[in-house]
C-alpha cells in the first residue's frame, strides 16, 4: 500500500484497486473518503468533491455522519460505530473505539488482506481502545498511525509510543504535528518508527 501523509490528521492510502482519503478532501478522485471525527471535515468541501465523484463511498464516524447528513440522500454516506465493518474495493474497514473530546468519534483499521493499518484518529491512551483493536488483530497491527500533539484529547509523543508497544504494532507512524505541537523525535518507538515526509508517498 502506498501511503502519503497530507499533514495534520490527513492521509492518502493507494492500493491496487482503491484510493482512500482519511480526514481530508482534495480535488483528485477518491474511491473512499474516511472521517474519524466531524472536526476534520467541511460539509461544503465534501459536497463539492462528491459532486465530481458521485460514486465515492464516504465512511464516517457517528459525529462525521451527523455533519454530513444533509448529503446522505444524494450520496453513499455510511455511518460506522465501533465494531461496525464495511468492505469496499477489496479493503475491509473496521471501526473501533476512540477516547477523545468527540464522544462519537471512531478509529479505523484498514485490512487489504496482506497488512493491517490502524488509524486511531483523536484518542488518548485508553485500555478499552487497546482491547478493541487487539480483539480484531490479536497479533498486533502492521502499521499504527497515532497522534502525538497532546491536544484536544489526543496522545502526546510518549503516550503514543507506549500505546504502540501495547498494541504490538510492527510499525508506528507519528501524526498530528507540524502546524500543531508535537515532535516526532520524542516518539520513542525505536525498531518500527516511520516518520513520513508531508506530501511524499511511501510504500508501506
Describe the structure.
The chain is of the alpha/beta class and 204 residues long. It has one domain: 4-Layer Sandwich (Metallo-beta-lactamase, Chain A), CATH 3.60.15. The protein contains four helices and 13 strands. It has a seven-stranded mixed β-sheet. Strands 7-8-9-10-11-12 form a six-stranded mixed β-sheet, covered by helices on one side. It is globular and about 45 Å long. The mean pLDDT is 94.
Please specify the SSE layout and strand pairing:
Elements: E1 2-5, E2 11-14, E3 19-22, E4 32-35, H1 43-52, E5 57-60, H2 62-68, E6 76-79, E7 85-88, E8 91-96, E9 107-111, E10 116-119, H3 127-136, E11 143-147, H4 157-167, E12 171-175, E13 202-203
Parallel strand pairs: 3-4, 4-5, 5-6, 10-11, 11-12
Antiparallel strand pairs: 1-2, 1-13, 2-3, 7-8, 8-9, 9-10
